[in-house]
Amino acid sequence: MTKVLEVTGLEGGYGSVQILNGIDLYVDQGEFVTIIGPNGCGKSTFLKVLFGLTTHHKGSVLHNNIEVSAWRTDRLVKRGIAYVPQVDNVFPSLSVNENLLMGGINMKSDEITKGINRACRMFPDLKSRMNDLAASLSGGERQMLAISRALISNPSFLMLDEPTAALSPRYQKEILANIDRLRNDGISVLLVEQNARLSLARSDRGYIFSNGKVVFSGNAKSILNDPDIGGYFLGVNT
Ligand SMILES: Nc1ncnc2c1ncn2[C@@H]1O[C@H](COP(=O)(O)OP(=O)(O)OP(=O)(O)O)[C@@H](O)[C@H]1O
Ligand SMILES: [Mg+2]
C-alpha cells in the first residue's frame, strides 16, 4: 500500500533547540491516524516540522515516496498537504467568507467556489455565518472554519492539531465525525488529539508520544482496550 507519509528518525525543534528525538511514523493511503501524548511532549512541534514551519534537524520525511523533509510550506501545499494549527487558525478580523478565500490564494475562482460549497455541505452551521466576522464565531464554529479553510486547497493529506480542544461534547463529536468522513473523499488524516478516546474510536491506528519520541504505536482499538495504556493516557482508571 502507498504510504502518504513515511517519517524515519525525525529530529527537529526550534532553531538549535531539539524537541523531537527521532520519530518514526507512517500514514497509509486512506488512513486516519491519531497522535496522543502528554502536554509538551512535541506533538505540535512534530506537525510543524512536517509542514515546514519550524526547524528540521535530521531524518527523512517521504510524501507519496518523495523526500519532502525541510521543504517550504508553499511547496508542500502544492503537493496536496494541508494543516490546521492548534492556535490562531482563523483571521478574526476577516469574515468567514474572506477566511475561506484566504485558503485559496493562487487558486482559480471556480475551484475556490467548489471548496466553499464543500465547506457549507460539511458544516452547515457556517453557511449562515458567511458574512460575519470570524471573531464572532463560537469556538466550535472557528474550528469548523479552520478545517474548511485548510480543505479549500483540495488536499489529499490533512494534518490537524487538536481541533476539538475546549469544545462542547456536541462539537467534539460533530467535528471528529466530519474528519472521519473526509476519508470518503480520499483524504488521509493525521490528527493530534487530547480527546484520545473519541478520536481513537474513529482512527485506524494511534501513536503515543512522550518526550519527543514515540513510546507506543498500534491499532487504535487495541490502544483503547489496553488497560495499562488506557489507565495512563486515556484516564480510564483515574
Ligand atoms: N516556539 C517555540 N520555541 C521554543 N520552544 C518551543 C516553542 N514552542 C514549543 N516549544 C517547546 O517545545 C516542547 C514541545 O511543545 P509542543 O507544543 O510541541 O508540545 P505538545 O505535545 O503539542 O503539547 P500540548 O499538548 O500542550 O499542545 C515544549 O517543551 C515547548 O515548551
Ligand atoms: Mg500541542
Topology:
Layout: E1 3-14, E2 17-28, E3 32-36, H1 43-50, E4 55-63, E5 66-67, H2 73-78, E6 81-84, H3 96-102, H4 109-122, H5 124-127, H6 139-152, E7 157-161, H7 169-181, E8 188-192, H8 196-202, E9 205-210, E10 213-219, H9 220-225, H10 227-233
Parallel strand pairs: 3-8, 3-9, 6-7, 7-8
Antiparallel strand pairs: 1-2, 1-4, 4-5, 9-10
The CATH topology annotation of the domain at 3-88 and 155-233 reads as Rossmann fold
Which regions are unreliable across 5 or more consecutive residues at pLDDT < 50? none
Helix content: 25-40%
Question: Residue-averaged pLDDT, rounded?
Answer: 92
CATH class group of the domain at 3-88 and 155-233? Alpha Beta
Q: Can you count the helices?
A: 10
Find the count of extended strands (DSSP E, 2+ residues): 10
Structural notes for this entry:
By secondary structure, this protein is an alpha/beta fold. Helix content is 36%, strand content 28%. It contains 10 helices and 10 strands. It has helices spanning 43-50, 73-78, 96-102, 109-122, 124-127, 139-152, 169-181, 196-202, 220-225, 227-233; strands at 3-14, 17-28, 32-36, 55-63, 66-67, 81-84, 157-161, 188-192, 205-210, 213-219. The chain is globular, with a radius of gyration of 17 Å.
